[in-house]
Amino acid sequence: MAANLLFPEDQITSLKIKSVLKRDGRLVRFDRQKIANSIFRAAVEVGGSDRQLAESLADKVVALLNDMYPLGATPTVEEIQDLTEKVLVENGHYLTAKAYILYRAERKKLRLDAEENVAVEDNIPYKILWKVYSWNVDHNCDTVEKLNQQIRDDTYPQLVKAAEEAYHQEIDIVAEKIIHLRDRLRLIIVAGPSSSGKTTTTTKISERLQKYNISFVLLNLDNYFKNLEEHPKDEYGDYDFETPQALDLALINEHLYRLLQGKTIKMPVYDFKIGKRLSETVELTLTADQILLIDSLHGLYPEMTESVPHEMKFKFYIEALSQIKDNKGEFVRWSDLRMMRRMVRDSWHRSYDPLRTVGHWHYVRRSEKRHIVPFINKVDYVFNGALPYELPVHKKYLFKYFPKIVETYKDDPKKLDAYIRAQRVYELLKEVEEIKDESIIPKNSLMREFIGGSIYKY
Fold this sequence. Notes:
With 458 residues, this protein is of the alpha/beta class. The protein has 2 domains: 9-115, no CATH class; 120-451, Rossmann fold, CATH 3.40.50.300. It has 16 helices and 11 strands. It is globular.
């Protein structure tokens, strides 16, 4: 018997139940770790920090499930949560039980609010998601297992080619829309959450506009970050690159206004490795027949471009709309996919430890929900920046880091979100076959923005 378990190991792991019925009617694989994480989260809310105790209490919930349900039974999520409350109360953890109950009530309210607007997810129309999912089904890559089979059957290179073609076809569609609105446009905004592919997509739109003899000026707002010592920090003392306040909004608006007036600006140059603007600047001028093109995490944030009249803007939103299911039948989370992209890119482009990227991702998501999602329904076009072939690439670059990341954050109550996220991605990558030869990924691919080797300069 394992030393830290209160019940025999066969009683814990040889479950009578294998599946759980979710609120939306889907059957998913039972996951004991989710119980432990929810208990630990509730304990942290009331000042607790004992991960081992949370694990032991989760074992008691599992043992109770084995006692109460017959072989092959499928309890609901609510029933498992009811038993968790029962275990917490009966073992004297009243404050934790209260925090757990309040958390359930809060989640219920959020679900009810979401059900009032069933046509969108994170403000993304379902018809767009359905289009992406249908493409994946048609190309046998809508599940991790099908993706693995393509690697085993050596059809993976064809998938890469088809995905790249689909991505570039959508670039052409956006270019055509911009050309149609040419007479009134002065500013094109490419916005989206971190590592969704904004920079590469912006560059490619620029290339298409050139083919149509449309002159443009590219303004990269990454150069407008404040020096690191001026950056806001989160509650853990980490520098927060994800808030709009990390950017010099006043200078951005001043430069936008001056550019539209036909004046020359001196754009700053930011060095992420030292966290400061360099002394050098780049002069930019926008003439009457040119369009200004910017990409920014916060391009939709109203204060970002308030100096530009609405009718002069074309707002374009990009998100990694992954529609691939793991072996549990759960869709891979968009934010997890983007976090993996950023882990790879930060490790070589910004000299950032992947462990720190995971640890900081909590405020990435927080900022997205505060400053991006509320404005998505105001955009002119929603673009899918996910590549259905990329999970095997992330397996190659990242899998080796996750044991250490999971272990580092496991017992840190302040980094519970990081632990849960790292554990979830680690389990996902365990299922994925590793890419054998990345040379099949084109040098002009969006994927190269993150793994390196691109023809573009970032």
